[in-house]
Design goal:
Elements: E1 2-4, E2 29-35, E3 38-45, E4 55-58, H1 69-75, E5 81-85, H2 101-115, E6 120-125, H3 127-138, E7 143-149, H4 160-171, H5 176-189, H6 191-203, H7 206-210, E8 217-222, H8 230-239, E9 243-248, H9 255-258, H10 260-272
Parallel strand pairs: 1-9, 4-5, 4-6, 6-7, 7-8, 8-9
Antiparallel strand pairs: 2-3, 3-5
Helix pairs in contact: 1-10, 2-3
């Protein structure tokens, strides 16, 4: 296991902006992709003409592409990026049945195939870390590297009550903009679909699946993340056959929003290794 602790990468220039919220106005290219009865919305930013890695961003439960926007802008300076709103989340139609983690992985694979994305660096946040891991296990030829941001569910805190308390504490540490994105995305997804998929998230064996991932893996967290603890993330990095750990100082659970440049630097260092 390669370990990098309390270290920020500063080699990436932040995106040029005309104001503190200019990233929200960065235009994305939307695409609707249907696989069977399930629909995903893909929000893309093209990379440089000379090409580079393809980055695929997978959100957590209740969320959408919106909290990846800052990270996506930085990564798009180095390769094509695709942030996927999975079935039931964001503005996508709600499925008529509960979806398993393997269902989501298969939908992601089919979506990427239809887009002709080739091998990708898959980046999952929170529950999205489960989707990313399962994609690498079930469709290994499609994935070159795996990045887990604030992964769940901590094996030492595997109850809904414990996770709810951790999320409540995290909301006190997030920025007002970050909290606004979370709240409005939760409203859009709806409590019914959130509660439908919550047991799926809580029961997934991330450790067991991660042990099967042959690709290089980066486990990344903010040092103030109460959801994905340091001990849990270190354990995951040690579980992966080719795993490494990176902690971004002073940031809570939505580390890709609060520290987009440092998060992107860690992701690109993995992809370049």
């Amino acid at each position: 296991m390669h370990t990098e602790t309390n270290h920020q990468h500063n080699s990436i220039e932040p995106p040029k902006s005309s104001g503190p919220l200019s990233w929200m106005r960065q235009p994305l290219t939307p695409r609707v992709v249907t696989t069977g009865s399930l629909t995903s919305h893909v929000h893309s930013l093209a990379g440089p003409p000379e090409g580079g890695p393809v980055y695929v961003l997978l959100h957590g439960i209740g969320m959408s592409h919106r909290y990846f926007r800052r990270l996506q802008i930085v990564l798009s300076g180095h390769g094509d990026t695709h942030s996927i709103d999975l079935p039931g989340f964001g503005a996508t139609p709600r499925p008529d049945r509960q979806l398993s983690i393997s269902d989501y992985a298969d939908v992601i694979a089919a979506t990427l195939q239809k887009m002709g994305a080739g091998r990708v660096v898959v980046v999952g946040h929170s529950m999205g870390s489960q989707f990313a891991t399962e994609l690498a296990v079930r469709h290994p030829g499609m994935v070159s590297h795996v990045v887990l941001l604030g992964p769940v569910v901590d094996s030492a805190r595997r109850t809904v009550r414990q996770q709810t308390l951790a999320l409540g504490l995290d909301s006190l540490r997030e920025s007002p903009v970050g909290n606004a994105i979370v709240f409005t995305d939760y409203v859009r997804a709806g409590m019914r679909w959130y509660l439908t998929e919550l047991p799926v998230m809580m029961s997934y064996d991330l450790e067991g699946s991660l042990a099967q991932v042959a690709q290089p893996v980066l486990v990344l967290r903010g040092s103030k993340d109460p959801v994905a603890s340091r001990s849990w993330c270190g354990k995951l990095a040690a579980t992966a056959p080719d795993g490494r750990y990176l902690e971004i100082p002073g940031k809570p659970h939505i580390v890709q929003h609060g520290a987009a440049e440092s998060t992107a630097a860690g992701i690109m260092a993995l992809a370049a290794g």
